[in-house]
Design a protein that fits this description.
Distance between the termini: 44 Å
Number of helices: 3
Shape: globular
CATH architecture: Sandwich
Strand content: 35-45%
CATH superfamily: Jelly Rolls
Largest sheet: 5 strands, antiparallel
Order of helices and strands: HHEEEEEEEEEHEE
Amino acid sequence: MVIQSLVEEIRATFRTQDIANVLEKYLTRDDLLTPEQSEPDPNTYRQHILHVEPDGSFSVTAVVWLPGQETCIHDHVSWCVVGTHEGVEEETRYRFVGGVLTEDGVSYNHAGTAVFLEPPGDIHSVRNSSSTRVISIHIYGADVAALGSSIRRKYELPVRAG
């Protein structure tokens, strides 16, 4: 089972950059997810929980995005490694400066690549700006099944261009 192999490698790894490198090895595999784990929601991006470590130390999820779907601007409860499995995910990063959010760059995360985020300073939004489905794999240093989400805080502030 592919996800179980990924989980075993994550258990043996302690640094987020190392976890990103481990994840990249799995991202291009056609057998990474089952058809059910690749199902979208027509109204919003959809998270499929693939694994939660018994002690709650990390979780693995698949997030499926249809064209135009996006997150709010947010940060996270823990470190996070995100790898794009299918398509291209658009990520906008922000800095909190003087009571407003300032855009701090946009990146396009292509299939087969992984990035890591660590609080503080992990404020971002993610969207599918393409015309096809996007699937990303998220590894969080938290039990997302118990928390319901990896989002610590949503930002509803003015945004200034960077």
